[in-house]
Amino acid sequence: MEKQELLDCHQRIKPFIHRTAVLSSQSINNKLGLNVFFKCENFQRAGAYKMRGATNAILQLSQKERNKGVVTHSSGNFAQAVSLAAKSLNVKAHIVMPTSAPQVKKIGVAAYGGKIYECEPTLRAREENANRLVAELGATLLHPSNDLDVIIGQGTAAIELLEEVPNLNTIFCPVGGGGLIAGSALAAMYFGKDCKVYGGEPFEADDAYRSLQSGKIEGNKSTNTIADGLKTTLGNTNFPIIKEHVNGIIRVTEEEIISAMRLVWERMKIIIEPSSAVTLAALIRDKENFQNQDVGIIISGGNVDLQNLPF
Amino acid sequence: MEKQELLDCHQRIKPFIHRTAVLSSQSINNKLGLNVFFKCENFQRAGAYKMRGATNAILQLSQKERNKGVVTHSSGNFAQAVSLAAKSLNVKAHIVMPTSAPQVKKIGVAAYGGKIYECEPTLRAREENANRLVAELGATLLHPSNDLDVIIGQGTAAIELLEEVPNLNTIFCPVGGGGLIAGSALAAMYFGKDCKVYGGEPFEADDAYRSLQSGKIEGNKSTNTIADGLKTTLGNTNFPIIKEHVNGIIRVTEEEIISAMRLVWERMKIIIEPSSAVTLAALIRDKENFQNQDVGIIISGGNVDLQNLPF
């Protein structure tokens, strides 16, 4: 992985993504004793950073591959992102979604022209259904987090954040499948100035924390978390990057996630989804270790079911 | 009123306010057939544009006046703004609030150090209580909307919006007491290029619409609206400005307000209060008259009680 590959990716996807705002809150900074810079990927097209990786992955396909369409499985945000990215590039998107995916995300996929195939809410069912579609259609499988083109694409959010705040001491990312934090870690290495990278993860889906402890990819013991985007596990492409470049993963309770989510809604007046609140919750839990630092947080998305809020 | 007075005011208050973001939504633009530029005063300090006028009014007081404190009456956002602006300038703030004011706004006032005096939810009770405090304390009354320093201060949001989007065809403001739309109309006249100004108002509190029809200040026949910031009536300082410079007022139903509020929450991922959704609702209702225009909307605030959402 070369620095130039990240720069090329950023240039490649620029016409298809928003350069999202970086926001701060004086009251949150005062409360924490440090400066937080929120990279607002909830303002990204399709409402999440996943648009970056999805766009990059599709742009890397040949015209022949594009003609046969793309397939993915996702609980929501990557599904919407692939649907919209594919639509922008005139490619057909086939989306395997677990029946448990939030209704608002299914509506989003359908609105962006993605064709939905529902399946049982297990990783195995998702993968089987996706593989079947690949075999039947000759379409290309886009993995939401364990594909190098996707990982690099996701890292462009951190590139932009570091362009605006070059001296960040630390970047926090949520950890689900590992694509965002792997990409962000590469960006921090190439574009930061000794910029550390930490992950936030629910205790209820702490596979990445335990994977870093054991040194091999661990599954989730439970996925009973409100952070519906963080139920997936790491992959063999992103795990080596995470193992080498991520400085630590901080786990948080469900109450801490909801409290951090509410804090952002009330103080910053922006809508973030529970998976995005995990990072601020992690920073709050461990704030003593980051006093007076400049900390970046990738707000991963804002696709919330307004009918089903935790407060 | 001179152009220079608005510029001086903007310079004067700059150290105490945020320069808020201007956001757009491709999907809302496509839906409406025009380009909307949202000036996000929900991101302003204390969560609303009112911080601008409050700061300017207090900065115009002598030190002797500041020592005796300031008094205001407000259903919420101006109360919070005066409390915070006063605190920043080491001035004591006495705030008369109707018992019907949202809990979240009372909490905000208290958090910013304002002293709350509760009263009956009528304009008369509010004014009587405020006048009593002025008499007792020798403090200065700050009117939330009918004070020229306040009006000019509120106009600085439109100045910033026009700095970023100089060729706006139209600016939409919500109309409550009339301070924001009067200030915005002055800003549009001095800094716009033939920029029109329209107001949005609930049918349930349409005093400004009827005042422009009759040519004199009318009261509200009802104030049964979710837009709690728009229940007040115009004043003799702002009405002449509105009469001369505002191009029209568009009334909307409660359903249209809630629908527009939801649209912004879902598509833009920002939290706006019902009073702020009135403008987009008005633009949607009358969109045929603004096709292909560049339209600015002042998003007035984001102080919503999350426990009491209309959807």
Note the beta-strand portion of chain A.
15-25%
Q: Could you list the spans of chain A in which at least 5 consecutive residues all have pLDDT below 50?
A: none
Q: Biggest chain pair contact, residues each?
A: A-B, 22 and 22 residues
**So how many helices of chain A?**
13
How far from one another are the termini of chain A? 43 Å
Oligomer: homodimer
- Structural class, from helix and strand content of chain A? alpha/beta
CATH architecture of the largest domain in chain A: 3-Layer(aba) Sandwich
Q: Provide the succession of SSEs of chain A.
A: HEHEHHEHEHEHEHEHEHHEHHE
Please name the CATH topology of the largest domain in chain A: Rossmann fold
Sheet with the most strands: spatial strand order of chain A: 1-2-10-7-8-9
Shape of chain A: globular
Instruction: Write down the CATH class of the largest domain in chain A.
Output: Alpha Beta
Strand tally of chain A, please?
10
Q: How would you sum up the major sheet of chain A?
A: 6 strands, mixed
Cα-based radius of gyration of chain A, to the nearest Å: 18 Å
Percent helix among the residues of chain A?
40-55%
User: Please, how many domains of chain A?
Assistant: 2
Mean pLDDT of chain A: 96
